[in-house]
Amino acid sequence: MDLRQLRAFVAVVDAGTFTDAGAVLGISQASVSRSVAALEAALGTRLLQRTTRHVALTATGARVAAQARRILEELAHLERIVAEARTEVRVGFAWAALGRHTRRLQKAWAAVHPGVPLVFVQVNDPTAGLAAGAADLAVIRRPLDDPRFATTEIGRESRYAAVATDSALARRRSLRVEDLSRYTVAIDSRTGTTTLGLWPADARPTSVRETPAVDEWLTLIAAGQAVGVTAEATAHQYPRPGVAYRVLRQVPPISVRLAWWRDDPPDQLTEVITLARAAYGWSAAEGGQGVGEEAGDRLG
């Protein structure tokens, strides 16, 4: 069977005659009749009782019609997804977007593509929505060791400590990770950028609390129940009463990368990379390779 046969069958059920169904579908009555007959042959059962004046469903036909409608509705839904994908570029992120650079990138994009919004969507999984199909590109701040995806660096960010505003730590302008060791550290080990490897072996935190979402993380910190370490973007994107952000000294910066499906890169990939790097103050050639070289690797 094929979708043409299902459409013809449902059209006959809705219109009541083969002739009216043909008018709805824009094909001849004979084509509708052949399609329905082919569907019945494929299923090995009669779906319609035909008389000279009207068409009626058989008992089996009624059940098949209900399922055929669901199939056609699902197909229409898939077509809408594809249509929507052509009208916007979706950038997924798990924890924070690009912080203070997010709006700068969106404004630069809108100036060139006023009819195609660049939309940031939060999906808290390791691929930031790529694997689920929720995003065309994704902001990644931790290694993405999945051969299905390609990545490129667009910028780097400082690491910040997040502490309660009434904590003694908040009275200092900057901190070191060793200053946090005697506190419970809230960590999102699934999508976050903080691991115990950030601390020297002799100054690891005494307690760690797994925190799967940024709101829970912020609530714990504001209550003084934990401290956190995060990317600069979080400090800009999530100001929260009760939470103070302080820059961390003597720790490596975080590499910010864009990721995409290796075998299905979005059409606007090179342009988004260029504008994202400019938002971070990078030239097109920074990040290890030029955009042109990456495009060659991507398509090769």
Characteristic key phrases:
single chain, 300 residues, alpha/beta, Arc Repressor Mutant, subunit A, D-Maltodextrin-Binding Protein, domain 2, five-stranded mixed beta sheet, elongated, disordered C terminus
Architecture blueprint of SSEs:
Layout: H1 3-15, H2 18-25, H3 29-43, E1 48-50, E2 55-57, H4 59-85, E3 89-93, H5 101-112, E4 118-122, E5 137-140, E6 149-157, E7 159-164, E8 174-175, E9 184-187, E10 207-210, H6 214-222, E11 228-231, H7 232-237, E12 243-248, E13 254-261, H8 269-279, H9 291-299
Parallel strand pairs: 3-4, 3-5, 8-12, 9-10
Antiparallel strand pairs: 1-2, 5-13, 6-13, 7-11, 7-12
Q: How would you characterize this protein structure?
A:
- 37% of the residues lie in helices and 21% in strands.
- It has 300 residues and is of the alpha/beta class.
- The strands form four sheets. A five-stranded mixed β-sheet has the order 4-3-5-13-6. Strands 8-12-7-11 form a four-stranded mixed β-sheet. A two-stranded antiparallel sheet has the order 1-2.
- It is elongated.
- The two termini are 38 Å apart.
Q: How many separate structural domains?
A: 3
- The global form is elongated
Number of strands: 13
Average per-residue pLDDT, rounded, comes to 89
CATH superfamily assignment of the largest domain?
Periplasmic binding protein-like II
Determine and state the CATH class of the largest domain: Alpha Beta
Question: What is the CA-CA span between the terminal residues?
Answer: 38 Å
What is the succession of H and E elements?
Answer: HHHEEHEHEEEEEEEHEHEEHH
- The CATH architecture of the largest domain would be 3-Layer(aba) Sandwich
Number of helices: 9
Q: What fraction of residues sit in β-strands? A: 15-25%
**Largest beta sheet: strand ordering:** 4-3-5-13-6
Q: Could you tell me the radius of gyration in angstroms?
A: 28 Å
Low-pLDDT residue intervals, each spanning 5 or more residues:
288-300
Largest sheet: 5 strands, mixed
Q: What is the fold-level CATH name, i.e. the topology of the largest domain?
A: D-Maltodextrin-Binding Protein, domain 2
Helix percentage range: 25-40%
Structural class: alpha/beta
